[in-house]
Amino acid sequence: MKYTEEHEWLLEDGDIVTVGITAHAAEQLGDVVFVELPETGTEVAKDEEIVVIESVKAASDILAPIDGEIVEVNDAIADNPAMVNDDPEGEAWFFKIKPSDTSQMDEFMDEAGYKAFIG
Amino acid sequence: MTDLKSTPLNALHHELGAKMVPFAGYEMPVQYPAGVMKEHLHTRDAAGLFDVSHMGQVILRGPDYATVARAFEALVPVNAMDLEQGRQRYGMLTDASGGILDDLMFANRGDHMFAVINAACAEADIAHMRAYLPDTVDIEVITDRALIAIQGPQAEGALAVIAPQVTGMRFMDVAVIGSDYGALWVSRSGYTGEDGFEISVEAGQAVAFAQALLADDRVAPIGLGARDSLRLEAGLCLYGHDIDTGTSPVEAGLSWAIQKVRRADGARAGGFPGADRILNEMQSGPERVRVGLRPEGRAPMREGVQIYAAEDATQPIGVITSGGFGPSVGGPVAMGYVPAAMSAVGTQLFGDLRGKRLPLTITALPFVAARFKR
Structural domain tally of chain A? Predict the structure, then answer.
């Protein structure tokens, strides 16, 4: 698992990367009540706002961590946003992306690095 | 955060694991570990304890209550003089243009008036009262008492363990009740739409009093986050958001708080700041009004979202002043201002959310039925 400074986790499996938000991020957000996911098939650019996530407190965006194509989204979390709080690093993944440049994956933190990052 | 003030319960909030935020100059708990959603639902199901000590507590004293009330009526469009002893009433300070300087609760406590005002407005309110009330009225700002609210269907049972007399109180009654925690200044009121009480307690007794209530399984601590979603579902205005100097009480749907005696044909008609506009609006209707709004779907529409009459309209007709997710409603809820001509319940309008026009429907307030013990 790799981590971004935007509190996303990325799991590489072959040529597909699954993306979600970390338990730390889910806790900071509070109870999630709404998730808007991108369309499958969308080409996205790194740092583009592609997910809207609303908690009881506020709206936030999730940025595309890398360039690529969205190949699958997790409709279950749009139907049941509370999953994001219950199992952020498991069942409540957000989308799967096919990277257009796998070297972009190299800059992310490992688990130890992320733990140090969030202090 | 060193310049923030703290309430007498500050250390207790930290001990309870609260997430603290700056609010109206105070460090206040926005939520506890349970989180906003659970805190909200617990209040509606059982009882929630809120620290509202940041709010201003003021005693207005004169030769007698009637003298104070007569003077006070020059600042509010409300009938203060006929308020019975031991009763509380909602009101608002208005300005010369008919806007709202603050909303407040005031009580007839026999030989004086006791008022609770908004934290963010407290300083200005007190200056306003000092400037416009006659010398016969003495203004005493209470700084040595905490203010704690307990709200929800189990609030009466939990508070009655400490102060059994509260079971005999009706909605908007006030009483001074002796207890193990000193004299409690109790009102049966609140800001959640639930039955409940607000209790002013000596600062030195506040922690022990709060701990005694929290030791009851029915009672959980509730932060400002859930306080906001509870009052929004109850259709209650938040000063600085739903009401301010730019809104009149009539536009805000608060005409019910202006009793007949202060209206155009009343025995003490007018005589408060902005009376011309306010009484005129009551007679001929305001141009815009505050309404409840239910966005379709799940996406919350928050304060500042522009409202349009049609999906392709270019000019907004209104704006959301409070909005979020309503845990008891199970979906997004909002309040905002729209032209009176478009304010009928059931009217479909559109909110502009991140560049998309999403439907929302005008809905009767409150979103969740009030459960006051009248």
Answer: 1
Q: Can you give the residue range of the structural domain that contains B328?
A: 287-374
Residue A54 to residue B299, Cβ atoms within 8 A: yes
ipTM of the complex: 0.85
Q: Are strands B306-308 and A68-73 parallel, antiparallel or unpaired?
A: unpaired
* Å between A14 CA and nearest CA of chain B: 34
Give the one of B225, B298, B354 whose C-beta lies nearest to A56's C-beta.
B225
Q: How many CB pairs under 8 A join A and B?
A: 42
Same domain, B277 and B300: no
Nearest C-alpha in A relative to B326: A56
pLDDT tens digits for range B173-217: 999 999 999 999 999 999 999 999 999 999 999 999 999 999 999
- Write out pLDDT tens, residues B289-304: 999 999 999 999 999 9
CA B36 to CA B42: how far, in whole Å?
Answer: 10
Q: Is A110 left (phi over 0), alpha (psi -120 to 50) or beta?
A: beta
How far does B139 lie from chain A, in Å, by closest CA? 38
Q: Which of B174, B169, B198, B181 is nearest to B51 (CA)?
A: B198
Maximum separation of any 2 CA atoms in chain B, in Å: 63
Residues B241 and B347 in one domain: no
Contact list, B40 vs chain A (CB under 8 Å): 56
Comparing CB atoms, the residue among B35, B299, B302 nearest residue A31 is B35
Listed residues B259, B285, B311: the one ending a domain: B285
